[in-house]
Amino acid sequence: QVQLVESGGGLVQAGDSLRLSCAASGRTFRGSIMGWFRQAQGKEREFVAAITWTYENTYYADFVKGRFTISRDNAKNTVNLQMNSLKLEDTAVYYCASRPGGSVYAYNGYNYWGQGTQVTVSS
């Protein structure tokens, strides 16, 4: 059974940093795409970042480029999202997701999802 479990969310001030982790288990993720999405209250879920498990190609939404970094730890089977210079508008529930291939940006192609972790940025 595939499980994706996010951790690391919390309440921070604008300008602070947070590191989210996604622990993946239940299958080999070699060849998979691992993505981070977020959903703010009243808004649609949106793509944040993604990484290909095998070659570690990375992809970012424009609004996080230069601030967020996605990485994966093969030994620990985790995917991390380092978030720096957090802004009020980064407040959302952040989800980890996995898909076997295809477009990294489209959330409806991801077939495994974690339960989400809340990130709240205050002024």
Estimate the strand proportion.
Answer: over 45%
Largest sheet: 7 strands, mixed
Per the principal axes of the C-alpha atoms, what is the gross shape?
Answer: globular
Number of E-type strands: 11
Helix content: under 10%
Order of helices and strands, N to C? EEEEEEEEEEE
User: What is the oligomeric state here?
Assistant: single chain
Helix/strand-derived class? mainly beta
What's the rounded overall pLDDT mean? 95
Uncertain regions spanning at least 5 consecutive residues? none
- Count of DSSP-assigned helices: 0
Radius of gyration: 13 Å
Q: What is the rounded distance between the termini?
A: 40 Å
Describe this structure in words.
The chain is 0% helix and 50% strand. With 123 residues, the chain is mostly beta strands. Strand 5 (46-52) and strand 6 (58-60) form a beta hairpin. It is globular and about 40 Å long. Strands 2, 4, 5, 6, 9, 10 and 11 form a seven-stranded mixed beta sheet that branches. It has a four-stranded antiparallel beta sheet with strand order 1-3-8-7, with no helix packed on it.
Blueprint (SSEs and pairs):
Elements: E1 3-7, E2 10-13, E3 18-25, E4 33-39, E5 46-52, E6 58-60, E7 68-73, E8 78-83, E9 92-99, E10 112-113, E11 117-122
Parallel strand pairs: 2-11
Antiparallel strand pairs: 1-3, 3-8, 4-5, 4-9, 5-6, 7-8, 9-10, 9-11
List the defining traits of the structure above.
single chain, 123 residues, mainly beta, 7-stranded mixed beta sheet, 4-stranded antiparallel beta sheet, 11 strands
